[in-house]
């Protein structure tokens, strides 16, 4: 039987702290995955859903974007993937009667976990101006309200269209067409807050903002550096690939401020050794780096390689660099080497918190490797100097020719299951001219060319009264964004907020003067349209595109697919009463597109490079891989046609005395803003989330005892104190001067205007805070 939704918020008075785990997954992971699944879905539905995850004829996991192996297990999912499916396929429901019984004001007092655990939304709902209760409305009325508000705007740039990374390629392509048809490029998305720094750095240096490696490259790498990433919680299926790499002889170095169980030892639940044989040790070395010190580390590694290249009498002298590759495929080496010569080992040691010997030891591993992969996630992308950091990652790889050869390359590990595909489909406020040109030819209109708002700029526009309507397709904008109080006040200024959603969350409760909830089908559910049962497609972190087909009965007969919602809205916006197209609007048969998604794919094939014969390619089990110049042929779509070495001034956070540098992070019982439970098994936390992890040395110097209650107060140049109250201090192995706490509870501490240079990503991994004891 499925369980019941929690009746109260998380009671943190029962929080307890136990031992930190040193191994990931194993029997506890299996038990917890099944416990959550059975509680949410029941036994029969759990079996129906879990056996379809990531299968070639099933649905793509709505969790992370880690790719699938060619040969699939019967149970091709991880613990957190099972939780993601259970959240969506739950038997619990949020019908209209729920909103009649619970006012918006009351629901605002519920925590994220309690809201999410109520179940699936079933009917479109409308919150009228001045009302405190959502009421049911028909789809025609709901979409009519939204269309009327959009058409009433004085300027289409007053509309903001947000997208989550779970949206399918088909829905994303139609969504961006609708937005550009309306006349704006205001397409902020979750990438703006997570991996925008990766895209910025990679586009500049190698000509494409995507990773260059395949799963086979991971399997056959000789050295894998994993920086600012916790795969045991955030991408657990990556552990299987790392285990295979270890069996093939790879050396793995973990670079992270916190020791993470998933980088230490993996007990693979699909092998006998994993379940009863002690598992596999993964990291050969652990570099416990200070927050924001990664650029200094990679400059140190580059400096070491340069010294070995030039050191007289060294066995490596003159042979460290891949000279043939550098001369044929790169530019800018001289300026980069000059920068390495200028940076000192003393400053590198200060910035990283590591010893020079530790960095040189990692450099020796680079010397010994003929094929190196660097993986990273948000630990590298959410600092002011993130783009410079990632340029320096690329620099080190270019020195040894580790781009475009087997077992080597860049591996930014993306989050949501189709966040990379959404960007490929045009969900970006700054798409290149070639995309616009192709879109215009295909739909016989002139798409707008001025850049639109990214996420931070969108919040600023709402705050400053320059926006009137917000539409979110997926995600939980209120809880995913920085500077929570500013974001909430900004949304309150709008005339209308509308959310295309599967589950209840805070974004339905922090609204404009009017609000709409537009409930949609989930990835797990059967999508039946006029043309029959439909399939959608997604793109994973390694540029592989494949089909996904839901099999479960929909949670409600009154749900629409994301494609259908977008198509019906576009028809209201762009069609005339006699069935024609309004002047200047894209020309499309919206009813036909909603009824047969293969027609959308034919448009995608005509607009997006690499999608020729799209339909035929996804008929092949496992789909196909998009072209990638650096990986496929060492060709680089930069202005020079070459990969770029870059000279980057060394930066790292400087923290005043008596203050700490905070990183926000996930617990093991959450995925992004979705809270699955109250525990963080790997870090020893049970029954609570309002904890701050602090080094014992810092606790002693600040005079704060283990278990003390404190407010976290962030300090920034605007002089505003941003406060997250009532956190329990937990002694933990963090670098001295560094602390960690879970988001979204700590997003309130991240200043809206504190962003990464160039990419605009919020600096959620380097927030200066003070701890104030609670009286």
TrEMBL record:
SUPFAM superfamilies: ADC-like, Formate dehydrogenase/DMSO reductase, domains 1-3
Native source organism of the sequence: Arthrobacter alpinus
GO cellular component, one term: membrane
Family of this protein: Belongs to the prokaryotic molybdopterin-containing oxidoreductase family.
Cofactor(s) this protein requires: Mo-bis(molybdopterin guanine dinucleotide); [4Fe-4S] cluster
Domain Molybdopterin dinucleotide-binding: 660-767
Keyword tags: 4Fe-4S, Iron, Iron-sulfur, Metal-binding, Molybdenum, Oxidoreductase
Protein name (database record): Oxidoreductase alpha (Molybdopterin) subunit
Domain called Molybdopterin oxidoreductase: residue spans: 120-496
InterPro entries: Asp_de-COase-like_dom_sf (IPR009010), MopB_CT_YdeP (IPR037951), MoPterin_dinucl-bd_dom (IPR006657), Mopterin_OxRdtase (IPR006656), Mopterin_OxRdtse_a_bac (IPR010046), Prok_molybdopt-oxidoreductase (IPR050123), YdeP_MopB (IPR041953)
NCBIfam families attached to this UniProt entry: Fdhalpha-like (TIGR01701)
PANTHER family linked: PROTEIN YDEP (PTHR43105:SF4), RESPIRATORY NITRATE REDUCTASE (PTHR43105)
Single Gene Ontology MF annotation: molybdopterin cofactor binding
Lineage: Bacteria, Bacillati, Actinomycetota, Actinomycetes, Micrococcales
């Amino acid at each position: 039987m499925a369980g019941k939704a929690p009746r109260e918020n998380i009671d943190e008075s029962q929080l307890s702290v136990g031992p930190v785990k040193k191994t990931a997954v194993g029997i506890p992971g299996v038990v917890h995955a099944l416990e959550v699944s059975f509680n949410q879905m029941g036994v029969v539905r759990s079996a129906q859903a879990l056996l379809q995850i990531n299968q070639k004829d099933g649905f793509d996991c709505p969790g992370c974007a880690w790719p699938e192996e060619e040969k699939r297990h019967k149970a091709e999912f991880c613990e957190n993937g099972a939780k993601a499916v259970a959240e969506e396929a739950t038997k619990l429901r949020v019908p209209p009667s729920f909103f009649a019984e619970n006012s918006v004001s009351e629901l605002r007092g519920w925590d994220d976990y309690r809201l999410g655990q109520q179940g699936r939304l079933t009917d479109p709902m409308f919150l009228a101006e001045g009302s405190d209760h959502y009421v049911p409305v028909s789809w025609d009325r709901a979409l009519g309200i939204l269309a009327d508000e959009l058409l009433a705007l004085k300027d289409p740039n007053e509309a903001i269209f947000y997208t989550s990374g779970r949206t399918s390629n088909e829905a994303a392509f139609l969504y961006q067409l609708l937005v550009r048809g309306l006349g704006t490029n205001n397409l902020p998305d979750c990438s703006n807050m997570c991996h925008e720094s990766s895209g910025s750095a990679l586009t500049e240096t190698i000509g494409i903002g995507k990773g260059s490696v395949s799963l086979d490259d991971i399997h056959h790498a000789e050295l894998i550096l994993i920086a600012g990433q916790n795969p045991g919680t955030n991408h657990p299926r990556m552990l299987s690939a790392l285990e295979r790499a270890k069996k093939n002889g790879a050396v793995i170095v973990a670079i992270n401020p916190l020791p993470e169980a998933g980088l230490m030892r993996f007990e693979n639940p699909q092998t006998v050794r994993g379940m009863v044989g002690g598992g596999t040790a993964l990291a050969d070395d652990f570099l416990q780096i200070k927050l924001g010190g990664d650029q200094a580390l990679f400059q140190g590694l580059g400096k070491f390689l340069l010294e070995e290249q030039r050191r007289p009498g060294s066995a490596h002298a003159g042979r460290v660099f891949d000279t043939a590759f550098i001369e044929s495929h790169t530019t800018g080496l001289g300026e980069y080497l000059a920068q390495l010569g200028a940076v000192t080992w003393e400053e590198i040691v200060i910035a990283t918190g590591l010893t020079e010997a530790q960095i040189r030891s990692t450099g020796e591993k680079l010397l010994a490797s003929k094929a190196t992969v660097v993986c990273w996630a948000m630990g590298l992308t959410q600092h002011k100097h993130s783009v410079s950091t990632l340029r320096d990652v690329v620099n080190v790889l270019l020195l040894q020719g580790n781009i475009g050869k087997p077992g080597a390359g860049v591996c930014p590990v993306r989050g949501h299951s189709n966040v990379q595909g959404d960007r490929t489909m045009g969900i970006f406020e700054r798409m290149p001219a070639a995309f616009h040109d192709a879109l215009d030819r295909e739909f016989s209109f002139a798409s707008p060319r001025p850049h639109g708002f990214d996420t931070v700029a969108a919040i600023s526009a709402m705050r400053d009264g320059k926006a009137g309507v917000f539409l979110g397709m997926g995600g939980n904008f209120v809880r995913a964004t920085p500077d929570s109080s500013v974001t909430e006040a900004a949304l309150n200024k709008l005339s209308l907020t509308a959310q295309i959603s599967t589950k209840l969350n805070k974004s339905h409760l922090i609204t404009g003067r009017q609000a709409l909830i537009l409930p949609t089908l989930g990835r797990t559910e059967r999508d039946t349209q006029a043309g029959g049962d439909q399939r959608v497609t997604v793109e994973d972190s390694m540029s592989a595109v494949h089909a996904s087909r839901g099999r479960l009965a929909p949670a409600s007969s009154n749900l629409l697919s994301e494609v259908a919602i977008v198509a019906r809205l576009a028809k209201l916006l762009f069609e005339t009463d006699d069935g024609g197209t309004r002047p200047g609007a894209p020309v499309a048969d919206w009813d036909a597109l909603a009824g047969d998604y293969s027609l959308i794919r034919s448009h995608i094939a005509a607009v997006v490079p690499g999608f020729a014969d799209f339909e035929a390619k996804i008929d092949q089990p496992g789909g196909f891989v998009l072209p990638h110049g650096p990986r496929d042929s060492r060709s680089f779509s930069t202005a020079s046609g070459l990969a770029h070495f870059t000279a980057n001034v060394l930066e790292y956070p400087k923290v005043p005395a008596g203050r700490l540098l905070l990183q926000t992070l996930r617990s093991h019982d959450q995925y992004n803003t979705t809270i699955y439970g109250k525990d963080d098994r790997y870090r020893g936390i049970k029954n609570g989330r309002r904890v701050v992890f602090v080094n014992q040395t810092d606790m002693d110097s600040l005079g704060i005892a283990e278990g003390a209650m404190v407010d976290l107060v962030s300090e920034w140049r605007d002089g505003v104190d941003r406060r997250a109250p009532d956190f329990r201090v937990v002694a933990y192995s963090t670098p001295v001067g560094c602390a960690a706490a879970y988001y979204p509870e700590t997003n309130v501490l991240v200043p809206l205007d504190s962003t990464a240079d160039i990419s605009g990503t919020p600096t959620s991994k380097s927030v200066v805070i003070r701890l104030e004891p609670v009286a």
